[in-house]
Design goal:
34% of the residues lie in helices and 25% in strands. The protein is α/β, with parallel strands linked by helices and 260 residues long. Strands 2, 3, 4, 5, 6, 7, 8, 9 and 10 form a nine-stranded mixed β-sheet that branches. Strands 1-11 form a two-stranded parallel ribbon.
Length: 260
C-alpha cells in the first residue's frame, strides 16, 4: 500500500510517551532528521517522569518531575531541530485528537503507544469517523504483542484498526478505587525487551509509510524467541473486499491501493 507522492507534509501524533513511545522517538527522530519531507510530530501524554521510569524508559534522573511529552519534545527539538509540539495531558475523548490535529494539508498518522483500554477506545472512535487517517496501534504483554495498521480514506475503512481484531483492547476497565489504575509496567506485566521490540516494529511501519510503501497490516512478535510474524495486506479480507467494491463503484483498477 502506497501513499501518493503528492504528500510531502505529515503530522505524526504519538499518543503515549512511556516504555514504547519514548523508545520509538529515539529511532524516529534520527530517521526524520535525514528525511526530505515536512513532518510535524505531536507528543501527547499527561504523565510526569518518576524515578522508576528512569530504569525502563528513555528518561534521565534530571527529568524526574517533568512531563514526559515535554521532556521528549524539547530533547529532539534541541538536539536535531525537528518540528515537534507536545500536549501535557492525557486524551479524555475522541474530540481531543481532532483538537490536536493541525488543519493544514498535513497527512495524519496517529500512533498509539498506550497501556489502557479507555484511551484506546477514544482512538478507535476517532478512527471510525476520520476522513483520512493511518492509525498504528502497538500493544504488548510481558514478552509478546502486536502492531496493527488501520487506514481510512474518503471516509471509508480500507484496513481495520487494532480494536477490530482485538476487541479486548478497547473495552474500558472497571473504575478502580480512588480512580487509580495500575499500568502494565507497574504490575510487572511488560519486559523492557518487549517494549523495545514493539518500538522497533512501530518504527519500521512509520519509515515504510513515509517512504511511500507498506505491505503489512499486522505484526505479531515475541521478545523471548525474537519471533516476528507479519500478516500481508494482500491476505486481509477486509482490504480485499473494500478494493473490489471500490474498484467496481468507481471504475478503478487494483491500483486503488494507492490512497491519497
Amino acid at each position: 500500500m502506497k501513499l501518493k507522492h503528492t504528500y510531502k507534509k505529515y503530522q505524526i501524533l504519538v499518543v503515549g510517551c512511556g516504555g514504547t513511545g519514548s523508545a520509538l522517538l529515539y529511532f524516529l527522530s534520527r530517521f526524520l532528521f535525514n528525511l526530505d519531507k515536512d513532518v510535524m510530530v505531536t507528543l501527547i501524554d499527561g504523565d510526569t517522569v518518576e524515578e522508576k521510569n528512569v530504569t525502563r524508559q528513555a528518561f534521565a534522573p534530571a527529568d524526574i518531575g517533568e512531563n514526559k511529552a515535554k521532556v521528549l519534545a524539547n530533547r529532539y527539538m534541541n538536539l536535531l531541530g525537528l518540528k515537534m509540539s507536545y500536549v501535557d495531558r492525557n486524551i479524555s475523548s475522541p474530540d481531543d485528537i481532532y483538537q490536536y490535529t493541525y488543519p493544514q494539508n498535513l497527512y495524519p498518522i496517529v500512533v498509539g503507544c498506550l497501556d489502557n483500554t479507555l484511551a484506546r477506545s477514544y482512538l478507535n472512535e476517532y478512527f471510525n469517523h476520520a476522513y483520512q487517517l493511518t492509525y498504528l496501534d502497538a500493544g504488548n504483554a510481558e514478552t509478546h504483542g502486536q502492531v496493527v495498521m488501520g487506514v481510512r480514506h474518503w471516509r471509508n475503512t480500507i484496513l481495520q484498526p487494532a480494536g477490530y481484531y482485538f476487541p479486548q483492547l478497547i473495552i474500558p476497565e472497571e473504575p478502580k478505587e480512588q480512580g487509580y489504575v495500575l499500568s502494565c509496567a507497574d504490575m510487572g506485566g511488560q519486559t523492557m525487551s518487549a517494549n523495545m521490540l514493539s518500538a522497533h516494529v512501530l518504527f519500521s511501519y512509520l519509515s515504510n509509510i513515509l517512504s511511500y510503501e507498506e505491505d503489512r497490516y499486522m505484526t505479531l512478535f515475541d521478545s523471548n524467541s525474537m519471533g516476528v510474524f507479519n500478516k500481508p495486506i494482500s491476505e486481509c479480507v477486509e482490504f480485499n473486499n473494500n478494493v473490489l467494491e471500490r474498484s467496481y463503484r468507481f471504475g478503478h483498477g487494483l491500483d486503488i491501493i494507492e490512497y491519497e
